[in-house]
Amino acid sequence: MMIRDHPTNHHHGPIITPIMIMSKTENSIKPCRLATASQVENWLWLPAIVGCVLLLFQFKHWPSLVWVLGNFLLWQAMMVIMTIPHELGHAITARLVGMQVSKIVLGSGKTRWTFRFLGFLWEVKTILTGGITLLSSQSTSWYRSRLFLVILAGPLANALMIFSLMQLSPGWVLNPIADTLLFPGAVFYIANVVIVIGNLFPTYARVDGAKIPTDGLQLLTIPLLSQTEIIKRVALAYVAEGQEWDRRGNQEQAIEYFIQATNQDPQCVVAYQSLGTVYQTLGAYSKAIQYCNQAIELDSHNAFSYFIRGVTYTFWRRTEPQYLDHALNDFTQAIHLNPNLDAFYFMRAATNSYAGSLTQAIDDFTQVICLNPSTNAYYNRGAVQYQLRKYSAALADFDQAIQLDQANLSAYYGRGNAKYDLQDISGAFADFKQAKHLSSSVHSGSSGSTPTEIDRNDEHGFYLRGIALLRLGDRTSTLKDLKTAENLCVEHGNTQLLQTIQAFMEHPTD
Question: What pLDDT does residue 333 have?
Answer without folding.
Answer: 97
